[in-house]
Each structure stands twice: as structure tokens, then as C-alpha cells.
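anyone seen this seq b4? input:
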Amino acid sequence: QVRLVESGGGLVQPGGSLRLSCAASGNILAIYDMGWYRQTPEKQRELVARISSDGVMTYTDSVKGRFTISRDNAKKTMYLQMNTLKPEDTAVYYCYGDLFWIGGQADYWGPGTQVTVSS
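predicted toks r here
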């Protein structure tokens, strides 16, 4: 079995910071693209940031300069450092990974972690 699990969400005041983690586990042979999406009840799931296996990063415009995506391939873990958080960043954040394991290759998703930005 292959799993992705997010952690690090919570409640933070506007202007504050949070660091999300996404850990992959199972008989994984390789991890290709990884990324973070977020979703609210009012909006469709949107891409926040993506990082390729060789470290190329892309961000949606609304988080550029505030969020930083990174990964530790040895630990099979991806991170999202979120600074200067705004109320509009409130959402459930999901990680995904394009994983190659002994059973094949597919996109996998974590169950999500809630981020709430409020005073």
C-alpha cells in the first residue's frame, strides 16, 4: 500500500505562518511531480504549488512571494512553508504525488489538512 499523509494545518492569525508536510509511505520506488492543492466549499480545488522531481517549482499567482514549496527525496516528504497568511488562504490543503511503486505508477492524494486564517 502507498499513502500520502499531510500534517501541520491549524488555526493562525492573519500575517502568521504555518508549515505543512506531506509524507509518503509504502513500497515506493520513485516520486516524480508533487504538489499542493487547496479547496473551499465555495471554490473548486485549485493548484497552489508544484515541484518536479528535479526541483523545478511553480506557484499560483496569489501565493507567489509568500509560500515556498520544497521536498526531501530521501525522506519522501514534501513541505509547504506558508508566510504572511491571509484569510483567503483558509482552505483544506491536499498534497498529491506522482508515485511509482511495485504495483505501478499513479497519482496519489492525501486526506487533507485544514488551514484556517482568522483573528
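The mean pLDDT is 96. DSSP finds no helices and eleven strands in the chain. kinda curious what u guys think
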